[in-house]
Here is the input.
Amino acid sequence: MPQEIFTHQFNNGLVLLAEPMDWLESAAFTMLLPAGCSRDPEQFAGLSNVTSEMLQRGAGSRDSRQFVEAIENLGVDGTSGVSNSHTTFAAAMPATNLYEALSIYADLIRRPWFPEDQMSEGLQVCLQEVWALEDDPAQQAIVQLKKQHYRDPWGRSCQGTEESLAKITIDDVRQQFEKTYHPNETIIGIAGKFDWATLLDQVAELFEDWKPFQNGEIQAGVPQEKYWHKKCDSTQTHLGVAYDSVPYRHPDYYQARGAVGVLSDGMSSRLFTEVRERRGLCYTVYASMHSLQDRGSVLCYAGTSTDRAQETLDVMMAELLRLSQGIQQNELDRLKARVKSSLIMQQESSRSRSGSVAVDWYYLGRVQTMEEISQKIDSLTCESINSFLNRHQAGNFTIVTLGENALEVPVGIS
Here is the structure.
């Protein structure tokens, strides 16, 4: 059957997107709120993450324990997270419980308690995330890579630091909530088994009277150093390399995605084959597309031993530059098979589709059907990808290393 996607924008700016998946007995929603860490005041890095944590400590008529019990009694599997652009709340549940779950989350994002007596515990949870990052140098490398490659605040991570978290008070949390939790720029994506007319009425009942608020413009900071090294007393070195690419909304995004897939999708990819299998230089290596709303990049990572770090970096850079010479048909065929498999699995998950429709709207202002995406993948050819690579050769590199020794980087990167 043709894929049907319903859209409705309320007068307060909130956008509701819904994709029926009537063969399922589940439903899921994803809420994207314009409360990402790019909105954190500079001196309060991590404030959006703290705000998200404190939201879940009582809302509407329920305290924190009653909130947890209510969603568990409905069979809700919920997650939350903070990115550079959004705070996200997502949940999947039996389809019959969709409205009740939405009403609980409506309280969460509209009527939180922010209990002052739980502020210390909330901060401790966020501090645990900071400490976990300190114990994960691979993740540190990627976090720092984004920070170096994008201007602040676009390269921020949500965790903040011990020092910045120590400054945050419950009043700061309440002020951040008032400034960033509003219906305009909020997107709700729903997928699964539901009746559209009933769902629209239910969402209107929960959110139509929510008052809009206008955020100010975000100011870009100064460019960062293109090579950054952190000395670590370790036998391992963690390498991050970034270079400019196109964002998700760009007409050539799938050409770029195809090229990066040849680099890093699967064990037959170039990076895995050349850096790990043939030369045995590292235990992990990959590349992936990363997109903000108006800019994009390719982020690469490798974890290796100290004595092989320089060679690993050199071989990685050589492969990134060699990509501009073009790809081969057998590489493209393998990539298409992997991407199609991923699309099929996504089509079977209400949670996955609820997130996809919301993200599509944020980047594109519309929702792509699975058929449209499939056609874009099918239309990729070696000629089209090679033409893209000729027009968008890897450059403006940023390099991050964590390990015993700083490395020699290509000329022009410093």
About this structure: The CA atoms of residues 182 and 232 lie 43 Å apart. The mean pLDDT is 94. The first helix runs from residue 47 to 55. The first strand starts at residue 6 and ends at 9.
